[in-house]
Amino acid sequence: ANVRLFLIYGPDAGAVTERVRAVEKLAAGRDSASGNLIRLGSEDLAADPGRVSDEANAVSMFGGEPILAIRVADGRHNVMPALSPVLETPPDAAWVIVEAGDLKPSSPLRKGFEACRDAAAVPCYELDARDVGRMIRSMIKDAGLSIDDDAAEALSAGLGADRMASRNEIEKLILYAGTDNPVTLAHVSAAVGENLASRSDRIIDSALLGRSAQMDDDLTRLRNEGQSAGGLATQMLRHLMNMQGLRERVDKGTNPRQAVEGARPPVFFKRRAMVIEALNRWPADYLRRARLAAGEAIAASRRHPQLEFELISDALHRIALMARRLNRDARG
Description:
This protein is of the alpha/beta class. It contains 16 helices and five strands. Strands 2-3-4-1-5 form a five-stranded parallel beta sheet, with helices on both faces.
């Protein structure tokens, strides 16, 4: 009951967002007068470090407990000057919910929340193939259904490593199946097909391998379906950060295949060949440039949300162009 400060982080962006929303809902439900939800970004904290403490300790003229939802997009802004005061002296009647990407154990943000008795640091890791299989069986069983082995295998192969996207696809399948029991391969083919997570993975892999035509096709479908490019960009940034870590291991002598197969969080098995190929192609300095391009696009899209798709698409095309140049250089 005393925990009101939350850091929810990890490589599984879908699970992070899902759990952040769950905590926001919990916070709002604890106090019927709540509703004073304030969303801030890491750039807001860097510009005004005192704002978090001020908002958390302010008395609302309408009553209720303030709920501060803070999104830390990357490591370019130092947010600890803003968060340290509330970690050192937790507010009496406020919720502070921080959403972040993958954080190393040495991260000051992670260490600060883990050291505070009144705070919780919740990691969210990507699914591997066994996790996906367990999730499928569990959700199908909870719905009062069973699923054929070939249907479960096909569904598992079609889902990505993002927990929230996978759960959404399984829920869609359950709704489609209705009272039909068991769930069959025909149900899976009709209801699920290609999911958003696997398409996002393909867009990212296409960019890193310079395959602009495939990338354009998938981006067009993404836009036509009304999907946000923001989630794709965040996934791209996270993947580039993971690629930098793998590149460091390769530069120290690890075989690229061994680096990918031993990656933590694990690289989903369907993507490993693409990631190995990209890892062989991209040196560390180019990965830094690509990460910078993705980060700049995310920041610009927040300033100009009406141009989100154009800004993210432009960054992906610049990354694809870098990949083609690297490929030409490798061929001599």
